[in-house]
Amino acid sequence: MIEQRGDAFYVTGPMTIATSATVLTEGRKLFGRQGGVLDFASVTELDSSAVSVLMQWQREAHQQGSRLGCRNIPANLKNLAALYGVADMLALK
Known about the structure:
By secondary structure, this protein is an alpha/beta fold. The chain has helices spanning 20-31, 48-63, 75-83; strands at 2-5, 8-15, 36-46, 68-71. The protein has a single domain, classed as STAS domain (Transcription Regulator spoIIAA), CATH 3.30.750.24. Strands 1-2-3-4 form a four-stranded mixed sheet, covered by helices on one side.
């Protein structure tokens, strides 16, 4: 569900409540202390749990002194983050 190519991490498939635990764990294993850029171009479906996963990844990156950028952000992820008031925190503007 997450593939690393260089400093980019490509999230693929659904980011829903059904996959959130798996996606969260995969991200934790890959990101480590290095940080990088999350690419959401291949996300096929998402719900509000995607916001929670992204918040946790950002929180852990910050604690480790690294940064995770985002690109190709689906409009519905931006909308959910704005609805919950966390778009700035997640750098999704």
